[in-house]
């Protein structure tokens, strides 16, 4: 199976700069954290980010998990908006959602910088 880039996976965008106007969103951070709250989902995200392309069947080949287990983890990552899935014939191809990863990174930065003006406004 090929890992070449397909339509559903444009190259990842550069991480967005957090502007002073950006507000900390605890609910969104918690949703991302929950989606990444299992080592298998972290491994899937890392695999997708390393490949930087749509992956259709290789996820199961790369991880020591059953197809059904991988499918459940992919479903949770997709529901959180961290990945996209596109039907390609009889299979679904997955890739990272670059905007969501950039948003997660920005939220973590705001979380670990509690003295920022944006955090004080959200409390």
UniProtKB/TrEMBL annotation:
<keyword id="KW-0804">Transcription</keyword>
<keyword id="KW-0238">DNA-binding</keyword>
<dbReference type="InterPro" id="IPR036388">
    <property type="entry name" value="WH-like_DNA-bd_sf"/>
</dbReference>
<feature type="domain" description="HTH arsR-type">
    <location>
        <begin position="21"/>
        <end position="116"/>
    </location>
</feature>
<protein>
    <submittedName>
        <fullName>Winged helix-turn-helix transcriptional regulator</fullName>
    </submittedName>
</protein>
<dbReference type="InterPro" id="IPR051081">
    <property type="entry name" value="HTH_MetalResp_TranReg"/>
</dbReference>
<dbReference type="GO" id="GO:0003700">
    <property type="term" value="F:DNA-binding transcription factor activity"/>
</dbReference>
<dbReference type="InterPro" id="IPR001845">
    <property type="entry name" value="HTH_ArsR_DNA-bd_dom"/>
</dbReference>
<dbReference type="Pfam" id="PF01022">
    <property type="entry name" value="HTH_5"/>
</dbReference>
<dbReference type="InterPro" id="IPR036390">
    <property type="entry name" value="WH_DNA-bd_sf"/>
</dbReference>
<dbReference type="GO" id="GO:0003677">
    <property type="term" value="F:DNA binding"/>
</dbReference>
<keyword id="KW-0805">Transcription regulation</keyword>
<dbReference type="InterPro" id="IPR011991">
    <property type="entry name" value="ArsR-like_HTH"/>
</dbReference>
């Amino acid at each position: 199976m090929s890992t070449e880039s397909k339509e559903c996976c444009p190259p990842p965008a550069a991480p967005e700069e957090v502007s002073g106007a950006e507000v900390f969103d605890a609910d969104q951070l918690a949703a991302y954290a929950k989606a990444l709250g299992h080592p298998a989902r972290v491994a899937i995200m890392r695999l997708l980010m390393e490949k930087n392309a749509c992956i259709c069947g290789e996820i199961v080949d790369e991880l020591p998990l059953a197809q059904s287990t991988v499918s459940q983890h992919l479903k949770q990552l997709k529901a959180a908006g961290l990945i996209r899935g596109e039907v390609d014939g009889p299979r679904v191809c997955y890739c990272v959602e670059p905007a969501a990863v950039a948003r997660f990174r920005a939220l973590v930065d705001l979380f670990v910088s509690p003295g920022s003006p944006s955090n004080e406004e959200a409390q």
